[in-house]
Amino acid sequence: MDDEDRFPPEVSAEGIMQCLCMLAEEAASLRLLRTLLALRAALETCQSEIAAGELLAPAEAAETAFPAGMTLH
To answer: What is the pLDDT of residues 32-72, one digit of tens each?
Structure first.
């Protein structure tokens, strides 16, 4: 296995939007209405964050994603 295979590709807002769009399309084709609605809400939120320029760096996002005092094990 190459070193490059061990590390995930860089995450970008555009990549996240693309994944959310593909998932929404799949949910629509499978008629998963609640999933589709949730994905659309996520898309709108992501678009708003991109437009506002408020996307957090990965380390900052991990720190702010959970309430204070909550740790992942």
So the answer is: 999 999 999 999 998 888 887 755 555 555 555 545 554 54
The tokens 């490059």 sit on which residue? 4
* Residue 2: inside a domain: no
Burial profile 3-35: b = 16 or more Cβ within 10 angstroms, e = fewer: eeeeeeeeeeeeebeeebeebbeebeeeeeeee
Range of 31's domain? 10-64
Decide: 40 and 24 in contact? Cβ < 8 Å.
Answer: yes
Cβ–Cβ under 8 Å, residues 16 and 46: yes
Q: How far apart are CA 53 and CA 16, in angstroms?
A: 15
